[in-house]
Fold this protein.
Amino acid sequence: MELTGRTAVVTGGSRGIGRAVCLELAARGANVVLCYAGSEAAAQETAAACEQRGAKALALRCDVSDAQAVKAMMKQAVSAFGRIDILVNNAGITRDGFLLMMKEADFDAVLDTNLKGTYLCLRAVVHTMMKQGYGRIVNISSVTGLRGNAGQANYAASKAGVIGLTKSAARELASKNITVNAVAPGFIETDMTAALPQENRQALLAQIPAGRLGQVQEVARAVAFLASDDAAYITGQVLAVDGGMAM
Ligand code: NAP
């Protein structure tokens, strides 16, 4: 299998897209360290499902916006598996609201988890990847980071920020055999989109050329590709997995 012997760290692996990424990487032979914010039972279930696919897996509680916690998680990953080959920065939250109503705390919370969390995790693995002379980093952005979305200024800013971070890190790390790419999902069936009111859902569907929401596995396969050796010469790119929304 193409990822046999690799170790992956996936943030936000307890649910949704992150869970599907963990299962996809495990099915391709990678050992998986996944983190979660609060859903311990779901995270343990993801770890068990990875092990059913023949991988070793470890679920750790880690708030990605906490630098010390992130450092400790990466240390535990290295002591468990000896290396970190793949980092998937997937943990993310929304706190939607129109600009004039948006509370500063909601702006900060979204930026702290989605953008600063991505930076902290990336920073915490770079040394290990440089020593290995190998690394694959995949950051989960969003179609909203590419196009903006009314009611999501904080989220769009965080996800556009992830793209700038991805491209800068890609330039810095390319010569070390570390690739850094982003995946920009469109609207995918998860808890995050289940929260959308029915009328917003209809309006959304009208914007998707494919005429349907995406499935978590469709995002996970794109992540697995960018994490594989087949993508060795691809860095600094944003791969939209969005049924044609952002073309
Ligand atoms: P989800 O179902 O709401 O799951 C979010 C995951 O992130 C959970 O595992 C959650 O852990 C974890 N998490 C949240 N805050 C965290 C923190 N501070 N530290 C560590 N983990 C944290 O979300 P999703 O829909 O799968 O989305 C996953 C990623 O894709 C996000 O970055 C999101 O912005 C992006 N995305 C999603 C869509 C979509 O349509 N769903 C579209 C574009 C982009 P707990 O379970 O412990 O809370």
Observations:
- The chain has a mean pLDDT of 97.
- Strands lie at 7-10, 31-36, 57-61, 86-89, 135-140, 178-185, 238-241.
- The CA atoms of residues 167 and 236 lie 5 Å apart.
